Amino acid sequence: QKEVEQDPGPLSVPEGAIVSLNCTYSNSAFQYFMWYRQYSRKGPELLMYTYSSGNKEDGRFTAQVDKSSKYISLFIRDSQPSDSATYLCAMSPDNYGQNFVFGPGTRLSVLP
Amino acid sequence: ETGVTQSPTHLIKTRGQQVTLRCSSQSGHNTVSWYQQALGQGPQFIFQYYREEENGRGNFPPRFSGLQFPNYSSELNVNALELDDSALYLCASSLGALNTEAFFGQGTRLTVV
User: Fold this and answer.
1) B33 interfaces chain A, CB cutoff of 8 Å
2) B95 reaches A (C-beta below 8 A)
3) Among A49, A68, A104, B48, which residue has the fewest nearby CB atoms (within 10 Å)?
4) Do B40 and A32 touch (CB under 8 A)?
């Protein structure tokens, strides 16, 4: 079992839909949970992060962490074609590089 | 744009050769981390440099080595290239070693033939 699992997609949705992206993990020591967006031929861009459990909202994006289920989610409301990208989850027991584990990413297409 | 620049953007090398990739960190940042992203995978941590010293290393063999210069720019060197080294190599810079403060460059696409 991989440490962080993520459905690779591709996931195609119509413009305006609510998108749900998810990751599961096996290491109960993870405390920092991040979501990155990566456009084609670009580096990842941090969208938001959560420490420990709970929800966090930033504009159209909401991140949720359920540590009891080892499950994290990113919701995108009113999705736009510009949201078409690969979404990577990443997590770490602390906030330091060598312990940072990424999921394989989910490719999202938002169709006009 | 993040202010982190990498060069070259694309590179083709032959198996057994050596390669040097470069990263210019964002102004004011003193930490550079390097990642390898194989096709269809998430980035994997190679190592990190903080104020010119190695500050953590992932599960990569010694033929992956690096340097950080006094201006905090950095190089990644890979010796004895193997076909499996074909990947996107990303650097991320930050002030201090915190993941949540790091900005990624656009990457160098390395193809080993």
Assistant:
1) yes
2) no
3) A68
4) no
